[in-house]
Amino acid sequence: MQYFVVMIDYGRRGREAIVDPEITRREVVSRIASGEYSNISFIHEVADCSVQDITEEILNEAALPELGTSGAGLQDSHLDHVRDLRKHERA
Known about the structure:
Blueprint: E1 2-9, E2 15-19, H1 25-34, E3 40-47, E4 50-53, H2 55-61, H3 70-90
Antiparallel strand pairs: 1-2, 1-3, 3-4
């Protein structure tokens, strides 16, 4: 049996592991390229009894620049900025 684990980091709102044994490697790449999966912490391929980190390979296949841990930080910064704008509008 082979499946993929895609860990999405939502910053302060937590993380989500997407695991679906019916999703193929091609489908994972497609979802990343379309933007459906973003802020990816890691992608693991589980095959038989082994686990392999294939994050860089999949991101390269999806033709996206490598996203480091700063991806979640950028989202947090954006949410903080929006909150600050709302706070200043009330004043």
